[in-house]
Design a protein that fits this description.
By secondary structure, the protein is an all-alpha fold. It contains 15 helices and 2 strands. The chain has one domain. It is globular, with a radius of gyration of 22 Å.
């Protein structure tokens, strides 16, 4: 096919394969930058001095789930904006795409305030239910409450980015992500006061702030503020056929309800997955209690889990980038009245994702010890984490199918089915399997990961069934 039926925006006139790469490559850069934010925070925690290292890593392990919750909370709204903008751009309806953008931006800031309050109030109870030691619990509360202040900014940055994706503009959000990551890397390092040691080489911190975990959190929050400012500037300046107008910031019932109707199931879809994975942390707490020494829960298991999660998150990157491309492109094709091309786009993105993520799976399987030592050389982490990476490496192809098709279906507005599949898989398979292998069969942390990764394979089959069923092609948003 030489050209596409898309009537407006950056993708107008591009072939399907050209549009995939135009969309996916900048998102891949953006996601690499986002993953590096979390990885850098983890590396800094892994280099804190003396007895603080293990509890700090345990605390930031739980803190990583908080930042994941933030992403979920914001992207639920962003899904609605992306889907409506993609359909409008495909149909050439600029007025509707502008209205959807303005509503999404206003709602993102208001929602960010609510999320910030939830994080502030929920920090201490979260530390308690995850079974952290007293030191780790105190560090977690500090980390989460500092992040809470930046939630309105995080909302604007993340939702604005997804709205740009719906319009086919992925380059500018990736540039913003690079800037955010640079600020996070430098400011978090400067404020934390940590010296970074890798083998015989040490990078001495020349600053004397020595705020440790507090400094790491402050660097991340300041990076969110920068990201929000840059996103606002890009949206007000405008991209091809899409611009944020002040008059569109006022909320009207009809457009607000459309955003909520599409985005709310997407939010609950992700929140169900997040809740199940948070419950997995409780299972890990059970394992730590079962392996207690003199009545003290075994330290380091949450940190070992986090290190594996941090590296696994890099395998998400091509899957998320191609899923974003699949959703934006399929949504625009449906808006242009071509469901056949919409299906082809999602299939093409899924195939590319399976190849790339499968290759990363091999890296995890055979490079686990090396990857672990980059973050921490502590004996408990080196004993546990490489096996976890091997386990997750075996299911990366299934993970690719799950990620790309799920993102593709969400991008066209099929959020009710993605919510149903995610909820059934997370609570009906993942959580029971993790508990069975880890606690009942006494396989410890490895059992947790066997249960989680087995569920990924089964979930891939469920998403594949929904995709080939084809009901998503007939949805109105």
């Amino acid at each position: 096919m030489a050209s596409s039926p898309i009537r407006s925006g950056k993708l107008a006139g591009l072939s399907m394969w050209s549009a995939i790469w135009v969309l996916a490559l900048p998102v891949l850069i953006q996601q690499v930058m986002a993953a590096l934010v979390g990885l850098v925070d983890t590396i800094y925690a892994g280099h804190l001095p003396g007895a603080m290292l293990v509890p700090a890593l345990d605390a930031i392990s739980i803190g990583s789930y908080v930042t994941w919750f933030v992403m979920i909370a914001m992207t639920g709204l962003g899904i609605g904006g992306q889907a409506l903008i993609a359909r409008a751009m495909g149909a050439g309806n600029r007025a509707e795409s502008h209205s959807a953008l303005g509503h999404a931006v206003t709602m993102s800031v208001l929602w960010g305030v609510i999320v910030g309050v939830v994080l502030w109030l929920g920090a201490a109870p979260l530390a308690h239910i995850c079974g952290l030691t007293d030191v780790a619990a105190d560090l977690l509360v500090v980390y989460v409450r500092i992040l809470a202040y930046a939630m309105p900014a995080a909302g604007l940055m993340l939702v604005g980015s997804m709205c740009l994706h719906g319009a086919g503009e992925t380059t500018l959000p990736s540039v913003i992500a690079v800037a955010v990551n640079i600020v996070n890397v430098f400011v978090s390092w400067a404020l934390s006061g940590v010296d970074l040691t890798f083998g015989d080489w040490t990078l001495v911190n020349p600053f004397s702030f020595d705020l440790y975990v507090r400094g790491i959190a402050m660097g991340t929050s300041l990076a969110y503020l920068l990201g929000a400012a840059l996103t606002w500037w890009v949206l007000r300046r405008g991209v091809k056929d899409l611009r944020l107008e002040r008059r569109d910031l006022a909320l009207h019932r009809s457009m607000s309800m459309r955003l909520v109707r599409v985005g709310l199931p997407g939010f609950f879809d992700s929140i169900m997955m997040w809740t199940a994975n948070l419950a997995v942390l409780i299972v890990i707490g059970m394992v730590a209690a079962a392996e207690a020494v003199d009545g003290v829960p075994k330290e380091g298991l949450q940190g070992a889990h986090l290190i594996a999660i941090r590296w696994e998150s890099f395998s998400f990157l091509p899957g998320f980038a191609l899923g974003t491309a699949a959703g934006a492109l399929a949504g625009q094709y449906l808006g242009a009245g071509n469901p056949r091309l919409a299906q082809r786009a999602i299939l093409a993105c899924t195939g590319i994702g399976a190849v790339l993520m499968g290759g990363l799976g091999l890296v995890f399987m055979f490079g686990g010890d090396f990857l672990t030592r980059i973050i921490s050389d502590h004996p408990i982490h080196r004993a546990e984490t490489p096996a976890l990476l091997f386990i997750c490496g075996t299911v990366q192809v299934f993970f690719a199918i799950t990620m790309v098709i799920r993102q593709g279906l969400r991008g066209v507005g099929d959020t009710r089915w993605t919510f149903l599949i995610t909820t059934v898989a997370s609570f009906g398979i993942r959580l029971p399997a993790a508990w069975l292998f880890a606690v009942v069969l006494e396989m410890g942390l490895k059992g947790v990961w066997i249960g989680m990764c087995g569920e990924i394979a089964l979930r891939a089959l469920l998403f594949g069934w929904r995709f080939f069923h084809g009901g998503w092609k007939r949805l109105e948003v």
